[in-house]
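Two quick folds needed for the group meeting slides. Do the first one here.
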Amino acid sequence: MTNLNFATAAQRTSLRSALSLVILPFRLLVLLPAMIAGRVLLRERGLDSAPEHVVWDEADRLWSPAHTEVELSVIMPFYNPGGALAPTVRRAHEVLTAAGVGFEIIAVSDGSTDGSERTLDGSPPEVHVVVLPANRGKGGALHAGFARARGSWLGFVDSDGDIDPAHLAAYLRVARRGGYDIVFANKKHHDSQSASSLLRKLVSFGFSSIVGTLFSLGVNDTQTGCKLVRRDVMAELLPRMRETRFAFDLELFVAAVTAGYRDLRAQPVRLEERVSSSTVTSKAILRTLTDALSVLARRHYTDTYVQRPAGAPTSAARADHAIAA
């Protein structure tokens, strides 16, 4: 029996080696053209510079100490969510109150034109609404929300009803116990459940396959919209990040891994059927793929994700800032 087990282990090792030999040329075949295309995008668009609305003064606020009464800041970016917004915010408030967490909810209108922010009129004092005059994209809206966050943990969750905000309360418990840098929803987790449409599942599979081939992050689901990040980690990463649309999530992991953060914890999630209309359009898919190529080129051809940005406070300056606060 021992010999049989040994042979089986040896066969598995040989199989893995053979698969690696097959996969490596395929990965190079995909990676090299992708890097070239990404570099062209960087040159033509100047995508290594920070977006105009993302300024260090805003990100710098994250270095100030968290508010003593706010453990968790939840950012909910939204764009024309219709009737889905208010129930999602209400649900988040209910579950976080029941969990005994000191929290705030920052709902950011990303240039919405349907007046959905008015559905939050009369919300409890823990709910704050930020209205951006023009559409910046999911990442741009998150930047605006993080700049106003006071919690020691920063979470963000989709506002369209497909993810129960109760997951953030569960992720916070995991983060407290494990001291993780980032805790994130992973729809590929063996305990996850999904009621998403076939189209969304196909798009997700395709994008995650591309990301796995190009980036080798050790994260097989970067895009599910529910994540929790420690405040000091976000303060370090946010000024390095450039993406303002859906590739923000991918870039968060690229920036974190490149900067040396390794305590990333995947957690199960239940994806419900969307209440609002889907944002998965052919244009959005193409744009996200293009943005992913820009992230790839930025990672390999620039020091954007390695060096702290000019103007970022030094350790001493951060300490002085904390004392002053």
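Then this one, please, same format:
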Amino acid sequence: MLGSGQWGQEETRELIFIRGELERDFTAAKHNKTLWEIVSARMKDRGYTRTPDQCKSKWKNLLNRYKGKETSDPENGCQFPFFEELHAVFTERAKTMQRRLLEPEAGSSSTQAKKKVKRTTTERSSDEFSEGEDEDESEEEKPARGTSRKRKKSDSTVVDKSPRPNSGTRTGLQEMLREFFDQQLRMEMQWREMMEKRAQERQLFEQEWQQWMEKLERERLMVEKAWREREEEMRRREESRAERRDSLLTTLLNKLINDNN
């Protein structure tokens, strides 16, 4: 299936599903370019031919609609059809971030674990708002890592004597997570309110429909009753006419018999 046209709903859901799978594989999602090449390859395995740039562009469009809370169209009340799928992806992301904060890697010092979690949280939070901002990150990290190793080698004594980070780093991480969870909670509440509103509208529509059907049923019964009454009246008239005819014939016969006698 060529990918030159618009994205269909099934194709879009496949993209979200694949992106959600890679969300759980943090190592595969580190480098943006590699990530979208993997997404493109998996889309091709499922019968959809899309380039990495097309997948990335579509994902950014979905993120913009999701973070912009465009869950409904005020003109016609249509719901954003992929809200629940994206909401599930970001809920899983929040759980992963929390696990990485509470369970540092074995063998790492507390300070190193906090720094790593902070870097991870920042990268993942940035990824929520834009998937394209860290394309050049891998190129920038190479000279940065080389410079960092040289600095550590030449200034090891200074590093050993430098003060350790205080509790402000952990407080900042907790505040960042709290804001993220608050945002997720607000969006979930808005989604629930929208679902409740739609349920109320559906219930109101069903009540109006039921009332209308009951009204039609009453009208049908009234018409049927009137028709039966009319039929009964016609039957009574026919019987009365037949009785008068029989009575007249009887009278005429009696008169003829009397005249003959």
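Slide caption for protein two: The two ends are 109 Å apart (CA to CA).
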